[in-house]
Each structure stands twice: as C-alpha cells, then as structure tokens.
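Hello again, I could really use a second opinion on something today. My current little project is about how a certain protein chain folds up. You're getting the sequence in one-letter code plus the fold written as tokens. Here's the protein in full, and shout if anything looks odd to you:
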Amino acid sequence: MVSDHNTESSFLGAVIDKPTLWSQACELTPDDFSVEPNRIIFRAMNDMFSAGRQVDDVMLAAELARRGQLEHIGGHSYIGELLTGVTQRKDIGPWVASLRRASGLRLLAHTAEAIGQAATGPAADLAVLRGRLVDLADTVSHHENTSQSIRSVMDLPNITSADIQPPEWLIDGLIPRGSLTLWVGTDGCAKSWLALAMADAVASGGAFLGRQCAHSIALYLDYENPDHEIKRRIGKIVDGDNPLLKHWGHWVGVEPPQIGDPLLLNMCEEAQPLLIVDPLRYAHGGDENDSGEMTKVMRHLRSYAAAGATVMLMHHVSKSEGSLGRGSTAIKGACDMAVLQEIGEDGLIRLRVGKNRFGERTTITVAPDFQAGAFELTDSPAKTERRNVVDDICHLIQGTPGLNQTQIIESLKIGRTTGINTLKLYDGKRWESRDGGLHGAVLYYPIPTSPVPVYRPVLGTAGTADSSCTAVPHPIGWYSGTGQETGPLKTTQPLEAGLL
C-alpha cells in the first residue's frame, strides 16, 4: 500500500501553522490521506475553512472535541506532533502533488485487485471489465493532473488577490530562499572554499560577505574533493563544531545521492536546507550537452527549490568564448541567478552576478585569507584594520630591521594575539624571520627588494612597485589543497559581454 505518513503530517502541520496555505490544497480530499487520524483532521479543517472560521491548533482541537473525535485521533498530543519541526514556507505544492500521486496509486492498486477478482469469476463480462478499466484510467489521470479545476480562462485566479509574499532571504539581499543559483568558475578559483564558507555562515546563522544569513541546515553534497582536504578546510573555516553543517562526501561510506534520487527530495522537504551540489557534472548521469537530458536534471533541481531548499550548483566554465558554464543552455536557463567567480593575479576573488531574477547585476570583490579560512569584502572594516596592521608592521621592520616579536607589538601598540598571528601569517610574504636574537628569539627583517615591479597587497586594485614589500604570493591550498604549489599565478579569464 502506498503511504507517506511524513508528507501527510508535514502538510497538515504547515497549514495549521500558516492557514493562508490552504488555498493551495483545493485539489485534495479526505480520501487522499492514508492515515485515518489525518483524514479526520483534514475533513474538520475543510469544514472550518469552508465556513470561514479561524483555523489553528486550539480551534481545531475544540472542533474535533465537539465532534467527539479528539481522543480518537490521539488527543492534543497528536496535533502538537503535527506542529513539531514545522518551518515557515510559502509553497506546499510539492506536498499536494505527492499526496495526490500516492492516493492515485492506492486507488489503482485496490481497483486493479477488484477487477482481477471479477475477471476470474463465473459471471465475468468483458465489456463491463473494459469499462471499469477505462474509468480507472480516467481517475488515475485526474490524480496526475492537479490542474483539472482549471477548465477555462475564466477559472484562472487573479494574481493581485493571491497570497504571494516577497522573497525571504537566506543570505540578506544576495540569495533568496527557494532559489536556484548557478555558480561557475575555472579550476583553482577557490569555488569550494567560498561555498564551504557560505555553508558555515548559513548553518551558524552568521554573516557571509558582510550579509546576515538565516539560520538553516546546510547540506553540502561533495562528489569530487578529497576527504582530507575538505577536513582541513573546514577546520580553518568552522569555529568549533557546527551541527547544522552537513558535509556528505566519499568519507561517509555511502556516495552522495544523484540528482533525481527520491531521498534528496525528501531531505529538501523536511529540512529546507541550503543545498550545495559540488560539482554539478558528477551529480547526474546525463549528457551535459544534451538539452533534453539536462532539462530533466534541472526539473529535479527546481523541485528541490519548490520544496523549500535553496540550491547552489557549483559548475565549470566552458572553453568556448562567450559562454558561461559548460554544457547545454538549459542549465543556465533554468536558474534564477548565475554567478561567475574569478581570481586575479592580485589574489582577490571577483564575483560577477549576471543573471538575477531578484535584483541588480553587480560585481563583488572578496579578499580571501586561506590561512585563517576567512573571506571578506575588500572594503569591510575588519579587512581594512588587518591591512593597516600589516602595512604598519611592514614599514616598522623596513625602518628598524632586526626587531623581535615583543618589540614590534609594543612599538605599534597592537593586541598581542593580533601581532603574533599577523607576524606568522605574513612571514616570507611581507617580511622574513631569522634566528639569532637573545635567548633564541626570532628577529624580523625586510625581504630583499625585487628587481622587477611587483604588486602591493592593496585591496581592490593591482599596485605598483614597492621598495619595502614583496608581492603577495598565490594563496595556499589553491590548486590541489596541499599548499605546495609553486607555479605561476593563475590569471582570470576576461568577462565577455553577455556571458551572464
């Protein structure tokens, strides 16, 4: 027997919590519920809504008590269980469709069994049985098509009177809840780093790139990155343990589910998470250049968004000039937003928001600190303060070589922790340490001047030659995550017009 008690309970709890959702349940009947208490509750709610009465947990319990059915369904505790774990949502369409489908399959099973018994009886009539099969096909078709109530143009409701709310932001002003975003970039541009930082900010209810995040579960489906490298990165990014950050990689022992797996839809319905798919190319078995196959994949992803998930697709750029993202245009076409991530020779990450159904197209410049696992806007107060400390230390060492750690901290009157961490972080980049001080103390000296022009680590733009400080090297963990890369800097690809 086809039953989904969780979906039934989630549906009822959502409507009790937010009665305005009832308008989306016009296709349902009590028979669409497989559990008797749920049928009783739905029938009572339907009568209360039809009579224009208020529906909430208290009024519903009173109505069931008046009918003598409250104890039969399990009392107040059963209604309380329906509201346990309910999260705010504005679309219950996927639940309605799921209930209709399950109801149709139950009806199909029962009717087919009855027809089978009738066909083996002594009074079997072929014409009657054929008629029953036709009726069954029509009934099942009705359960599959939830738009049967729209039979003419005038049956369409007026959007001005519909209960449509403005976007709810998962990341304030940047990523709306229930949206589908394509996030693309070349290999080595730190997409996974930034995605992990985003996941941690959402799972902790903190801030991402200076924008407040709604507190929500973050489910990171990792099909590619080595387990040891992800653990290393999370160790840098996450402050302590974050129980709402769920990373599903190869280390789990069970591979992350492919797009289209019913488990994913169930997870999205139950948790309404930030769902990060990294990378898209390994999350499905379709041909990315086939429009038909990718349309099916994107429909599944759209159903996750409709169920309440906020979906981020980590993807790779195409080698073809003038194209954003590999594969069929069906991928980009199905998304609400498209973001191109690039990293320049100055070490800054640039996020170019092109397609955006919710706001303006813009460019965001991010200063990464891979040692600390931090990502900040280039004009953020924290980043400005850190830059000033680095510059002050650099100039002090240039003017007075051979100072030790304590002398530098006391001369600049900076916090001891800040001073120690900064000296360690930029050792070999802005200055160099040498042994030789009193009692084995480490002394700091300027790095010999480079004979060629170098970039100063000034945020936002590439600098010019500087006699005191060397160029900022390529961030650690960029390519393979080992921190041992010594090759030349990766340059960004030019952003052609119309890419996004």
Notes: Residues 145 and 158 are 21 Å apart (CA to CA). The chain has three domains: 5-159, 169-370, 378-474. Confidence is low (pLDDT under 50) at residues 450-500. Residues 5-159 form a domain with the DNAb Helicase; Chain A fold (CATH 1.10.860.10).
